[in-house]
Write a structure and sequence with these properties.
20% helix; 6-stranded antiparallel beta barrel; single chain; 3 helices; alpha+beta
Length: 188
């Protein structure tokens, strides 16, 4: 026999108010249909515990335009799965369903020759949508190298160039300061 307390505890398992219940139900729906989406990819991501495979949706965020200098993308993981900004991940391209790294190379994929690292991306931002968190990702297209204390350091990143007319160095704060100084005859 089901008691009122048993029914109350069942309802509370989904949340203590209607908003939490709706969020839990939305998470269940997204989880059940996650791999059925055409944007689904199985990515290989670097975590604090090492590399691991993770389910993700790979979505285009912006196209080339007069306002944007390069295309960027979103990656969305399953609900309640989060990664920090700066994490590297391998995302399969449109030529295959899986990444192009296999076997023992999966243990240390960043140690491969540069010409074999073609599907490397990294997380550069987090979209704090309260319902489903998405991360901005950029494809790594440059291996940065520098010397510090006679030791060579390397790091993968994205070299982006600003080609639109809105790019450049903004110096309007100088004009405002100079106008203020002229108007006040140099007195603060």
């Amino acid at each position: 026999m089901i008691t009122a307390d048993m029914y109350r505890s069942h309802l509370n398992s989904y949340g203590s108010n209607l908003a939490q219940v709706k969020q839990s139900q939305s998470n269940m729906v997204v989880n059940s249909a996650f791999t059925a989406d055409a944007q689904y990819k199985r990515v290989y991501i670097l975590t604090k515990d090492g590399w691991k495979f993770e389910d993700a949706k790979f979505q285009k965020h912006a196209k080339y335009s007069i306002l944007k200098d390069a295309v960027d993308y979103y990656v969305q993981f399953r609900p309640k799965v989060h990664y920090s900004v700066g994490s590297y991940l391998f995302i399969p391209d449109d030529t295959a369903h899986e990444i192009n790294i296999h076997g023992k190379d999966l243990e240390h994929p960043l140690s491969l020759p540069e010409d074999q690292i073609t599907q490397l991306w990294f997380i550069v931002g987090r979209d704090y949508d309260p319902s489903f968190v998405r991360y901005n990702v950029l494809q790594c297209n440059w291996k940065f190298k520098w010397i510090y204390n006679n030791k060579l350091y390397t790091c993968w990143g994205a070299n982006r160039s600003a080609n639109s007319y809105t790019s450049g160095k903004w110096t309007d704060f100088v004009w405002i300061f100079c106008t203020y100084m002229v108007r006040c005859k140099g007195k603060p």
